[in-house]
Amino acid sequence: MRPWTRWGATLWHRIDKRVPGAHYLNTTGADSPAKLLIAGHQNGLADPVLACVMMDAQLHFFTRADVFRKPVWRWLLLRFNMMPVFRAIDRAPNMAERNKATFEAAHDRLEQGAVCGIFPEAGHLGERRIRRVRNGTARLIVGALHRPEIRKRGLDVLPIQLDFERYEGYRTTARVRIGAPIHYADIPHLLSDSGTSRRALSARIHTGLVNHSVHLLEPPLYEVHLAACRFLEGVNEGPADASLLQAAADAIQRNPIDALRDFNAVLYSGIGHPRISDDFAALGRLKMDNRTKLMPHLWRLPAWLVFILTTGWWPRLAEKWAENRLKDVAFRTTFSVPITMVGVTITWFLLAVGIGLWSTQPFALPAALILFRTAQHLAMPLEDALIDLRTEHRVSRSVPHAFIDRWCLASASKVEP
Predict the structure, then answer these.
(1) Burial category of 218 from C-beta neighbours within 10 Å (exposed 0-12, middle 13-18, buried 19 and up)
(2) Rounded Cα distance, 179 and 177, in Å
(3) CATH class for domain 2-211?
(4) pTM of model > 0.85
């Protein structure tokens, strides 16, 4: 399933296939330190899927237990290395005993060299910030260190960034990055698993995640900071510089009333909200004179036409379906991507069968499938350029605005053109 799912993720998202920090996972197996990945949880089931398809190692993720209720899903998820964990809000019987059994299974897997992953926040939220870390992750780590084999080899607790510039939307950007192991060996009486040691370890985990993530201000200033973040991502044409994000946060916190007023004014002028559009990123490109160039991609036009006419409409159909039926934005990508994957795959197969029957040539069916896949691969840079150009054209009249100049450009001015 991984090659197909990786293709589906890269069809829907703009993903840099390089994973900075991947070398921290290069040494796996029974003789190397055990590996535990910890991540902020922002985008529903899309978070573990993105991690699993963008890394070479097979990952064993803790997953909320309620999705295991239906037998079919339970059968499938268990075979995808998922492990059910109960949260306090689940109010299930015997939660403590059942979670203990899951933790013991995870310790067995870590001992055998598997790479496990957990979301310490114990719940998702469609915002680019790290929330309070629950102590269950500290219990998992301490329990693993009680195993003599793991204690001898060591346990690397690695923060992983699963960052989505937006939580819905076709061809939005997603990033994966692994950080250096979190240092915890100096915590006093860690193996005693006392409340004090658990809280100290949870604090280290929270700090590690904050330092390795896009960590924006809490509401009501979250959306103002998000707009500045998206602007800086447009300026950089990539991740926003952490120091510039912090500079924007400091400025917003010094004058929160003015920042909120100017933010509402720029939305009133017609700029799309940063939660649901890429307008602020487009404004960043325009301010730095980095307007998207179409000419280098025009040679892709025949491939783009093949893609658009055969299956290029599937992502937009799935996007509209998710928007109309799912209130939680953090789950829209979770359902849009598989709908698109299945729809495109079936459509390509049916078209290829039709071409094969029409041509009566035995090689026509595989040749047609190769043609469709190649056309889609070649078409994506032109598709992205067209999407960005349309956004830039729409927002170009709003470039001179008080919010952009005061809260975004002040930070971006530190970036050399």
Answers:
(1) exposed
(2) 7
(3) alpha beta
(4) yes
